Amino acid sequence: MATKQNFFFLILKKVFNFFMNKSLNNEDISSVLVLQITKSVLKQQIIFFEEYIKFSKKMLHEYEQKIQDDYQKNSQKDVVEEKDMISDDFYNKEIYKKTSFEMVIIANYRLCELTLKKLLCTKLKENEIMGLNFHGLKKKFKPMLNLGLIENYTDVNELRLLNNCIKHNGKVSRKLSNITRNKPRHWIQDDEIFIDENIIDRMYKASEKFLLDVI
Q: For residue 161, which of 11, 99, 176, 197 is within the disulfide window of CB 3.0 to 4.6 Å?
């Protein structure tokens, strides 16, 4: 089972790296090229990420269907070992789903962070930008644009905190709970993080609109 799981996530990682790197690598672009080229490239990046989300969902749904088919095929067999394997597959399916959806949230926030950094690199030196966290980026942007006033900023901040919680212990932090207290989806402090397709779609749509407004 460990081999199956590693193979599943290796493919997702490779596909994510493809979408994140495609058309984004502007280190070799001459400094004389205008800001509009960078903006155009970053808009492509956002479109590529939507394809990554679709691919992740497709892979997961195909895997779930395979398990369901195996179950139907073997459910009548009186072989204890095969039934145990099917039970293991159903258990692992939930692990795959949880982990793959969490990966999409992490990748979505990474997209936001990279996009903001690439935009700032058109104004400032790269070594001043790449090590900054989200709050540092907000500070650097402020003379040009107050990110906190852009529509969907609160959703992107929620995405940031979700990303942090998933990476740390998988539970809702006090900060995440506090900022969503008056939102339709209120995360309860110390609850285990559970990501479903609705959350993925909501976070992506909000971050997409936020980033396009920034660009």
A: 176
